[in-house]
Design brief:
This protein has 254 residues and is of the alpha/beta class. The protein has helices at 24-32, 69-80, 100-108, 122-129, 159-162, 178-186, 216-223, 237-243, and strands spanning 8-13, 35-38, 54-57, 60-61, 64-65, 85-90, 113-117, 143-147, 168-172, 194-199, 207-212, 229-233, 251-253.
Length: 254
């Protein structure tokens, strides 16, 4: 068994994509790291803040994984066992669909010191970028954030429940099941219920579609919207649509 004495593991939230949307504490952790294991959704410019650290890509996408979660867990412990400061750099916030608990639990088996530096999650950061108020007095008094699919590749069972709420609903990683998600909302909401889809939010590659339950799938096809994207349902989206009221009701812009 490896000798586990002085090393540490810090899970750092890299924010939604814009390299400036990272906390000062997160930036300092990157600068002081000796090993950085980073995800596919982090902005690579963040890695330039440390030219000395060993950098290991461990990103996962649908149908592709550079490393399995078990391999990532092992790498974290492996480098911490060498008395190194290890940073696990994750897109958004580590505790929002980031498998942080699995990595922390594995490190705990070896009594390794761990910490978390929160990041701006995509559901808040991307909405803010487009001035979409996830809550608004007398309009939307709560919000619901859910994944579009489960660990075994099925649509989340929370989607039909979310569709019934009056809250703003943000669906992360949901483009694969967009048709089914829209159908679930259509059972409980009118055809003109507002929807926004934002791909690659806060980055130079960002694309946005605004529409309704009746039009959003057509807009997605016409403008080739795909993952990674956030889907936002609810009256809060009207604030964004109103800004472009002199344009057509559904549009794509970059």
């Amino acid at each position: 068994m490896e000798q586990l004495n002085k090393g540490s593991i810090c899970l750092v939230g890299a924010g939604p994509g814009d390299p400036e949307l990272i906390t000062l504490k997160g930036l300092k952790a990157i600068q002081n790291a000796e090993v950085i294991l980073y995800d596919a959704l982090i902005n690579p410019l963040l890695l330039d803040h440390n030219v000395i650290a060993q950098k290991i890509f461990v990103g996962k996408r649908r149908g592709f994984a550079k490393k399995t979660q078990e391999e990532i867990n092992h790498l974290l412990v492996h480098y911490a066992a060498q008395s190194k400061k290890v940073v696990r750099l994750k897109g958004g916030d580590p505790l929002i669909f980031g498998r942080a608990c699995e990595e922390l639990s594995y490190a705990a088996l070896f009594d390794i010191e761990t910490s978390i530096i929160p990041g701006i999650s995509s559901f808040t950061g991307i909405a803010a970028q487009h001035q979409i108020p996830l809550t608004k007095r007398s309009i939307s008094e709560s919000m619901w954030v859910t994944t579009g699919h489960t660990y075994d590749g099925r649509i989340s069972s929370d989607i039909p429940l979310a569709a019934q709420t009056s809250a703003t609903v943000v669906v992360l990683m949901g483009m694969r099941f967009l048709k089914q998600i829209v159908a679930a909302f259509t059972e409980h909401k009118p055809d003109n219920y507002p929807v926004a889809i934002i791909q690659n939010g806060t980055t130079k590659a960002e694309k946005v579609v605004l529409g309704t339950l009746a039009t959003i799938e057509k807009e997605v096809r016409e403008h080739a919207i795909s993952n990674p994207a956030n889907i936002i349902f609810g009256p809060a989206v009207l604030d964004q649509i109103t800004q472009y009221k002199n344009l057509k009701s559904t549009l794509c812009y970059r």
